[in-house]
Inverse folding.
């Protein structure tokens, strides 16, 4: 297996044809076909089904493509760092961090602006993804540290320091009748359109169980996979979102009110790094500043 074969896999998944892939990669169509055949032979599995000139990826191809992307990202990072070191654009100090999408809009820009005042020559690289993907980035040491949910189990190759906790709250359009309540229960949410996150995650399963025990069938209007999107959907009147108070208090919006969900359901979050691997001076400084900002978010502790 070689890098060019992985690049062909990635590009074929996007284009769906050897002609378009050849054009995008500057290769001949036969060259693309040969690299694909070599990759399938090396892996001893079919990656694409042929259908009237189109290549249809198999489920195995789609699963392998994610790790292929990580490998290629690592190679790109290595190549770019070497180029920057040669050109003097950076010194040996750079910091790579991985964060959930919900921290992208305001939290992270504020954090990096503050950090840059004291470390103006440090190069920062940010990755925004799911907790599962962030864990893999940490395990493979593509990033120095990341922000993760704590759910009781953690990879032995990752060290997680819990920093903040939040309880489930309801994000309610300000004009909604339930905005008048001080606390919202499952029975209050009967037949109410809901915006929920984290399907099949431990905390979501606990929330679903609370509704079952209360004898209330959830009316799920929107399933989403980021807290900031759930918040925004609620602000646009699409339903009531149930998310962690930590994420709910990251944004101020006069279109919504935030009310505690009862019975209480809490979740912890923290900063994680590869087990046994010390952070650089710059990464440690950024980690400390991030901890402080996490603790300063209004309403993270309950």
């Amino acid at each position: 297996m070689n890098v060019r074969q992985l690049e062909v896999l990635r590009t074929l998944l996007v284009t769906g044809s050897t002609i378009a892939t050849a054009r995008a990669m500057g290769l001949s169509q036969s060259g693309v076909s040969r690299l694909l055949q070599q990759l399938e032979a090396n892996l001893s599995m079919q990656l694409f089904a042929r259908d009237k000139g189109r290549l249809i990826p198999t489920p195995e191809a789609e699963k392998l493509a994610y790790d292929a992307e990580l490998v290629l990202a690592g190679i790109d990072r290595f190549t770019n760092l070497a180029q920057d070191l040669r050109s003097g654009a950076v010194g040996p100090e750079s910091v790579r961090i991985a964060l959930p999408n919900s921290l992208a809009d305001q939290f992270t820009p504020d954090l990096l602006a503050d950090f840059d005042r004291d470390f103006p020559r440090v190069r920062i690289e940010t990755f925004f993804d799911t907790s599962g993907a962030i864990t893999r980035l940490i395990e493979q040491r593509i990033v120095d540290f990341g922000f993760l949910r704590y759910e009781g189990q953690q990879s032995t190759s990752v060290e997680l320091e819990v920093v903040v906790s939040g309880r489930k709250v309801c994000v309610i359009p300000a004009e909604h009748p339930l905005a008048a309540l001080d606390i919202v229960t499952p029975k209050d949410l009967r037949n109410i359109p809901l915006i929920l996150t984290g399907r099949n995650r431990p905390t979501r399963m606990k929330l679903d169980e609370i509704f079952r025990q209360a004898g209330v069938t959830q009316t799920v209007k929107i399933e989403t996979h980021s807290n900031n999107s759930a918040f925004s959907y609620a602000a646009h009147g699409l339903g009531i979102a149930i998310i962690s108070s930590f994420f709910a208090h990251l944004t101020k919006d006069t279109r919504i009110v935030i009310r505690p969900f009862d019975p209480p359901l809490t979740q912890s979050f923290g900063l994680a790094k590869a087990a046994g691997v010390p952070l650089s001076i710059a990464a440690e400084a950024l980690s400390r500043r991030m901890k402080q900002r996490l603790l300063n978010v209004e309403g993270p502790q309950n």
Q: What stands out?
A: The longest strand covers residues 158-173. Confidence is low (pLDDT under 50) at residues 298-302. Residues 56 and 112 are 42 Å apart (CA to CA). Residues 59-87 form the longest helix (29 residues).
